[in-house]
Write a structure and sequence with these properties.
The structure is a single chain. This protein has about 260 residues and is an alpha+beta fold. The chain has two domains: about 30 residues; about 220 residues, Jelly Rolls, CATH 2.60.120. It contains three helices and 15 strands.
């Protein structure tokens, strides 16, 4: 009898839990991590011609590394900035997908390449319906006495870079190695645009993450999903380290 009661209790608990689990699965966060993805842009680093066309040389310069099929991004000494990419689009607009878009870049971090205070700032921007810039968010990498750190910047001006990069307690030290910097743009339940920025190591472990950072228009109002027409650029908007090696640049959407 006791065994039968335990079995009935187990069945009842299971019947209650299954719908709850299904509900949680259906109503999880708005990020695209657990969804099937399709690549809509994949930079080709297999030849010098294709590799050198990925980033604009408006600022800094780009070098092709034939042996490794990678590129080296070099800083612009005059403007303390670096190369930028339009994700293969000549009109500076990779058309928006209503389910969201994930822009990722894979970079090699080597602490000995940096002097104290040197680093870079990488940002991905979105366009408004008029095809012009509307908003962006930044992540920084900078060397401190304790090592090379990664952190999040709300604003990318020079003053803000210095303020946030030196005061952010959430910044994490990075060991030498390859890291994927991922910008997951998505809308919440109210169609307000958010971005989750993740830094993922070569073991596929997330070592730093900012979840659902808010996107703002220049007037500080919310960016609605209906305001966005596409991705504008990825850009090393601040760069004082001499060079950074890059092996991948992709954009993905929900399949």
């Amino acid at each position: 009898m006791k065994t039968m009661k335990k079995s009935l209790k187990y069945i009842l608990v299971t019947l209650v839990m299954i719908p709850c689990m299904l509900l949680l699965s259906a109503c999880g966060d708005d990020n695209n991590d657990q969804k099937e993805l399709k690549t809509v842009y994949d930079a080709n680093f297999s030849t010098q011609e294709s590799a050198l066309s990925v980033f604009s040389d408006l600022y800094g310069s780009v070098q092709y590394n034939e042996e490794s099929d990678t590129i080296t991004l070099n800083k612009d000494d005059v403007y303390a900035t670096g190369p930028n990419t339009y994700f293969g689009e000549t009109d500076r607009n990779l058309d928006w997908d209503t389910d969201g878009m994930i822009a990722s870049i894979r970079l090699n971090i080597v602490a000995n390449d940096y002097e104290i205070g040197e680093g870079f700032n990488y940002t991905v921007a979105v366009n408004g319906n008029d095809g012009e810039y509307v908003s962006e968010r930044f992540i920084y990498v900078r060397k401190y006495a304790e090592g090379v750190k990664v952190g999040y910047i709300y604003n990318g001006s020079s003053d803000e870079i210095n303020q946030w990069a030196t005061s952010s307690e959430d910044a994490k030290v990075l060991a030498d190695g390859w890291y994927t910097f991922k910008f997951d743009f998505h809308k919440n339940s109210e169609n307000i645009m958010k971005v989750t920025i993740s830094v993922i190591d070569s073991n596929n472990q997330t070592v730093f993450e900012v979840v659902d950072a808010k996107l703002n228009k220049p007037d500080d109002s919310d960016v609605n999903e209906s305001d966005v027409s596409g991705l504008r650029y990825g850009w090393f908007s601040w760069m004082t380290v001499d060079s950074i090696e890059c092996s991948e640049l992709t954009v993905q959407v929900i399949d």
